[in-house]
Write a structure and sequence with these properties.
Elements: E1 12-16, H1 29-39, E2 43-48, H2 51-61, E3 66-70, H3 76-86, E4 89-94, H4 110-134, E5 137-146, H5 159-179, E6 185-191, E7 194-195, H6 206-218, E8 226-227, H7 228-240, E9 248-251
Helix pairs in contact: 1-7, 3-4, 4-5
Length: about 260
């Protein structure tokens, strides 16, 4: 059996998302996962809709085993062709998301909601379809999706976002059953509150965000708010744990206990 520390050495891993990284205050969850996988010896390719962001983060990381490709996850045909061009892939991680849906349903902008579903929900489904139809993931490999704890406790301002994330729970377990025929594991990382660049889109200054993260973190059992580096540990588990499939991997600082 390969030692855990060596399981990812030389493996080809594609991370959808991950271009919002070293040049910003709060890197994205995908970026944290990509760097952690790279640190453990994998050859990592990130996919992002922005070639400019890809160029910046690839230059910043400056590692021969780290590169990026531009792709539009909302365009099924072109995105599947991109994934096929990268095959064979040992592990595929989907963390694509470009906005947060929060607020009273009476004030919901359904165009924005549909956009996020197109990225996060249908993007995940496209990855599953590519794995099932075109064998882009090697036997013994894995697909890791990303949801959120709003699926379990949406509160008053996350009915739509919570429903999106809950749908990914069902998708994960359905795909785990379906792709088991190809010996592909499917799991889902379920983060709670995380300080990432997505919060910039909520209209608050960096100073206000920092104060919000500190205040929210002190209310958690662990006593702090996570960054993408903390959440990356869950992706490492999902990719390396050969006996895990259909798992919903909650990593939320104990937030669901409140």
């Amino acid at each position: 059996m390969v030692p855990s520390r060596d399981k990812l050495v030389g493996k080809k891993i594609v991370v959808v998302g991950g271009s919002s990284g070293t040049h910003i205050s709060y890197p994205s969850i995908g970026h944290g996962a990509a760097l952690a996988l790279l640190e453990h010896g994998a050859h990592v390719t990130i996919i992002s809709s922005s070639q400019e962001r890809i160029n910046t983060v690839v230059s910043d990381v400056d590692n021969p085993h780290f590169d990026g490709k531009a792709g539009n996850v909302r365009d099924e045909n072109s995105f599947i062709e991109l994934l096929r061009s990268l095959a064979p892939i040992d592990h595929l991680v989907f963390s694509g998301v470009d906005k947060i849906i929060r607020g009273p349903i009476a004030e919901a902008d359904f165009d924005q909601c549909r956009h996020l579903f197109g990225v996060k929900f249908w993007g995940s489904a496209i990855c599953g379809k590519a794995a099932a139809k075109y064998d882009i993931i090697t036997s013994g490999g894995s697909l890791t999706l990303t949801s959120g704890t709003g699926a379990m406790n949406p509160g008053k301002t996350a009915s739509i976002g919570g429903a999106l994330n809950a749908g990914l729970f069902t998708m994960t377990q359905g795909l785990a059953n379906e792709l088991s025929e190809k010996r592909i594991r499917v799991n889902c990382v379920v983060p709670g509150l995380v300080a990432t660049e997505l919060w910039d889109k909520m209209g608050k200054s960096k100073e206000d965000q920092k104060a919000d993260f500190a205040r929210a973190g002190t209310a958690l059992p662990v006593g702090f708010c996570a960054t993408s580096e903390h959440i990356a540990e869950a992706y490492l588990y999902a990719v390396r744990a050969d006996y895990a499939t259909g798992s919903l991997i909650t990593i939320d600082g104990g937030g669901v206990l409140r």
